[in-house]
C-alpha cells in the first residue's frame, strides 16, 4: 500500500486528474518518440466499402458513432489516449445494465456499476455533479433498469460535447477518413 500522508484525501481526485492531463499532453509530443495515432489506428477490414461508408458516417453525429461497433472501438481507443475511457465504459455498462431482466442480477450489477464509476473516489469515477451522483445513489435502493439514466445522460453529453469533437479532429480519425475516401498515402506499402 502506498502511503500518501502528505496529501489530504480531498486533494487526491484533483491531483489524479492533473496527472492524467499531464500524461495526456506527453503522449501527444512527437519529440518523445510516440505518435498516439500510429499504433492505435483502426484498419479497415474485408468489408471495405461498408466500413468506409461507416467511418464517414461517424462524423454525421455522435449517435452514428455509438451505433457502430467499430466506431465505439475507435472512439474507445482515442479516449484511452486522453485517459478518459471511463466515460464510454460507464455508458456501455449502463447500456448492458438496461438489458438485464433478473431483479437479483439487476441489483448486483447496479451496485457494481455504482462502485466502479459513480461513487466518490470510485476507481474509474466519471465526471458528474454531486446532485446527479446523489440521485443515482438513491436510485440503487430500488434498482430498476432506469436507475443510471440521469448519470448516463450527463456522461453521454460530456462525451458528445467534449471528446467527440476532438476525436473527429484526431490524426487517427483523419487517417481513417482518408483511407475510407481512397485518399490514403501511397507510402503505406513500404511498411
Automatic annotation (TrEMBL):
Segment Disordered: which positions? 170-191
Q: For this protein, what is any one GO molecular function term? A: GTPase activator activity
Listed Polar residues bias regions: 171-184
Q: Which SMART domains match?
A: RGS
Biological processes annotated in GO: negative regulation of signal transduction
Keywords from the UniProt entry = GTPase activation, Lipoprotein, Membrane, Palmitate, Phosphoprotein, Signal transduction inhibitor
User: What protein name is recorded for this chain?
Assistant: Regulator of G-protein signaling 16
Q: Tell me which species this is from.
A: Malurus cyaneus samueli
Q: What is the lineage of its organism?
A: Eukaryota, Metazoa, Chordata, Craniata, Vertebrata
Amino acid at each position: 500500500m502506498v502511503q500518501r500522508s502528505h496529501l489530504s484525501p480531498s486533494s487526491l481526485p484533483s491531483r489524479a486528474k492533473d496527472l492524467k492531463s499531464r500524461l495526456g499532453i506527453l503522449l501527444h509530443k512527437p519529440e518523445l518518440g510516440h505518435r498516439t495515432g500510429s499504433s492505435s489506428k483502426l484498419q479497415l477490414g474485408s468489408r471495405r466499402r461498408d466500413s468506409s461508408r461507416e467511418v464517414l458516417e461517424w462524423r454525421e453525429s455522435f449517435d452514428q458513432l455509438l451505433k457502430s461497433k467499430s466506431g465505439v472501438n475507435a472512439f474507445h481507443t482515442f479516449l484511452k489516449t486522453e485517459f478518459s475511457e471511463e466515460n464510454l465504459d460507464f455508458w456501455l455498462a449502463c447500456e448492458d445494465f438496461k438489458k438485464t431482466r433478473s431483479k437479483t442480477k439487476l441489483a448486483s450489477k447496479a451496485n457494481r456499476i455504482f462502485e466502479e464509476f459513480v461513487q466518490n473516489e470510485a476507481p474509474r469515477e466519471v465526471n458528474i455533479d454531486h446532485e446527479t451522483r446523489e440521485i443515482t445513489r438513491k436510485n440503487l435502493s430500488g434498482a430498476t433498469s432506469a436507475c443510471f439514466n440521469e448519470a448516463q445522460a450527463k456522461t453521454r453529453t460530456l462525451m458528445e460535447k467534449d471528446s467527440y469533437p476532438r476525436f473527429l479532429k484526431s490524426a487517427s480519425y483523419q487517417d481513417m477518413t482518408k483511407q475510407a475516401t481512397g485518399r490514403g498515402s501511397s507510402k503505406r506499402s513500404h511498411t
